[in-house]
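Record type: monomer structure entry
Structure origin: computed from sequence
Chain ID: A
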Amino acid sequence: MIELFQHALRLHADPSRVVVRPFHLAWSRNGGSRTERIVAAVMSLDAAQTRAELELVLKDFEARHWQTRRVFMTRYDEIEDMLGIDGSEIGDEKRQLIGAYFCHEYSYAAAALMNPSAVPHFDQSGMPAGSQRILMSLRAVGEGHISSVAFREGIITDGNQLKLAPEPPFATATDAVGIDEETLPEGPITVFRHRDSTLSGTVIFPITAAQSKGLEDLRLVHFTHDDGTVEWLGTYTAYNGSVIQSELMRTRDFRAFDLVPMTGPAARNKGMALFPRKVGGKYLMIGRQDGENLFLLKSDTLTHWDEGQKLLTPAFPWELVQIGNCGPPIELDEGWLLLTHGVGAMRKYAIGAVLLDKVDPSKVIGRTREPILAAANQDREGYVPNVVYTCGAIRHGDTLFVPYGVADSSVAFAFIPIGSLLEAMA
């Protein structure tokens, strides 16, 4: 029987976590527009009226957000550029008020918080022996069921303890430079964390047309290139409301994030997970190309993926409906440890594991016959009942730290001795 230590901490959806986002109105170059009408109306206010209206806005919102006045000023600059007006004679209060009309609050985790992944943090300074600083990504779901990427930093110890860094009082969204107000951008884009924002207070929102309805299930991996340099990579699903597309997030410093669409027939599917280094001179992925089985994918580049070879098919009752990966493979002396998810009767999800050959990952050398984790008791209830799901675990010494989503509603944490897991595959 596999040993498992479940931590008492649980993260839940939180409607109080809000950010200021641009509020976009219909725009037409022919005739007037609502944008022009609103700007003209604010411009017609005298100084006293402007100050009074701005004070009302600030009374409601200034204490809820970080540097609210500066956010309004930045938004005004975007509106000024869009309308092509000369704002040199417009005072700061009018600028801030105009900016406020084109912003809104968005509760990015009001509906759900789920499907985490974990990687080693980029800063391990000051860590005592047996402890490791970690970084988690989380899928946050807000109004309109739009998914974004949130982060939490923390520390795990060799005593199966987890301590998360506190969330700052204000959350901030990443920004992109040079975005056209009138059209959603296409293709690769780079977004930036605000210079004064912590990573635990940063949210990456959909920004391109392909992402417009969500960035889903980021699977982070600490990737080592052939030259020894390190990069944090993450595959995720971009969703526009009708079509899905796998994309790649790339960062070396968690300040700038490249969001890059992937090409090839394999990239039209969900659930791709990247190996943490090349194997046999190739980049490798685990994917679910037919929505039912697991495939091993190989490529000469990180961004183009053709169809691969079938690796695993459903074998046990708890996974007969379908199987998929639960994050990037983890390198052990014994081979590549891959967490999987299976769907059984009544669409109940469970998490299992397989061991792949270290030199030739197309060879399966071990597989759990029973789930490691399955929806049970209080873990069955939520937005989507009977689901447990992770997008990536992390090795910590002889233990596997597994953050996992519960019923598409909350996030729980477990520690699993790797030895016990390997014994279950014998």
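Annotation 1: Residues 27-31 have pLDDT under 50 and may be disordered.
Annotation 2: Helices lie at 34-43, 47-61, 68-83, 92-101, 418-424.
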